[in-house]
Amino acid sequence: MSKDSLVKGTIILTVAALVARFLGVFQRIPLVYLLGDEGMGSYSIAFNLYSVLLVVATAGIPSALSKMISERIALGRHEEADRIYRAAILFAVVAGIIAAGVLFALSEWFAAGVSKDPMAILATQAVAPGLLLFPIIAVMRGYFQGRQHMMPNGVSQVVEQIFRLVVAVGLAYALLSVSHEWAIAGASFGGVAGGVAALGVMIYYTLKLKRKDAGEASSSAKSVTADTKKGAKQPASNTPVLTSYGSIYGALLKLSIPIVIFSITVTLVYSIDSSSVIPLLQDKFTTDGARELLGILGGRAQSLAGIPIILAIALSQSVVPLISSSFSRGEMDHVKHHTSRVLQLSILTGLPMVLLIVLAARPLDGFIFGYEKSVYGYENAPYIIGLLTISAMFQIIMQTSGAVLMGMGRMKPLMLAVVVGVGAKVALNYILAPSLDIYGIVLATMTCFIIMSFMNIRVLHKAVPFKVFSSRRWIGLIVSTIVICAVGFGLEYVTHTYLHPFGIDRLNEGLNASIVSIVVIAMYPLMLMLTKVVTKEDVRNLPGPIQKIIGKVSRITKRGQASS
Q1: Of the N and C termini of the chain, which has fewer Cβ atoms inside 10 Å?
Q2: Are 422 and 357 in contact (CB under 8 A)?
Q3: pTM listed for this prediction
């Protein structure tokens, strides 16, 4: 993949992921209003179990498939690439049928037995058909990624979220007249509708690509014939030729199993919360109260805390191929440089969104979700959102360092970190929840990400003696964060206490959230420049829009220093 296509593909997927994420958050607004935090708790139980089974059903096949397809296409082995794709589609169909059947069969046991929420049974069954569709969609996305066509993947993500939003909200509203349980199930079925729409998009692009391939086939054949007559040789390669479906599945699983173990981490952590929050907290808050707290965690906090991760992870993944190629050639200086750079970019691009959401958690939550149907929302939601978003910073480091380890082929220590981190999460849920309630469960999540980050970084340091920042720059980053937090918290307190120009609370919260967000985002590049955390080399490695912002801030700062 060329540098230009890599950057273009990263931009497409990043924009699509951002749009899809915001649509996903926007979907929660009417659902929280219609179902309440208690209903969102039941919805989260069904969705998180579905997400775990979806990752297992796809088994990391898309990432492994994209690698195998791109290798064969580069070597001109198009027939083999098509054979691998057909084998992956067959795998997806079978895996989807099994996963959908398992989810439907286990719905009552998991929802009523493990999670102690019978209201989630129907919702779990309603989303089960989605597992018939999404393994196929995931394989198709992996194929297009291997062909270096990112647009179908991006468009399908956005279309999926649009249909999910419309159907989920529409059915939840329509079925409220039947019962609260049916309304939750209707919201859950929105995921199936999104899958149908996404599959339609992928089929359209598949047919379009087939027509393009057919048009290029004749000219390709002529070129091959001419080269053969001239005695041209095909490039040598150590990539094995896969002739049978058995050999294809063996190669796919060898690549995909470590990927799925790492990819499932966050989904598994959230699923652990879905199954344990109500049993752990129902004695103190009653079952309904515990379900509402779970709804706040799953419906509000997880939605907002997932936003800072998108750009940082997309940026880090765009550098991983460089690490992989440099490591395979033994160019350890390049590996050291790329490792430092990818962690720098992840921290510098993830931190501002973390700060924004943490500092504006109360007005953002009030404006986006409101508290009309929430007993515990006003007193707890902003703090749950803030604490989980802080943990997102460690999640960024964990996922970025894990991606680097994958590029270096260091899968065993990566899997060990997953086992230790998730084990600590489960243990701390039971240790901290009795005394700290829902906050103990969030702290357990944060500790899980911290442990995994530490273990990943330790392994990387042993492999390459890299440095993320110098001591001076770390101090500058810490000082910048402290100053922004002090100003942000103070500004949020002042606006919350004194600024109420409208007669509608949500409008006031929207205004306050806007003020705090604008100040935080404006201060971030300014503080980085003042404390010399960001150098000219760092600016050149950031996306174009961010470069322009930092450049303007730098010019303003210089003019201010000159005038003083």
Answers
A1: C
A2: no
A3: 0.71
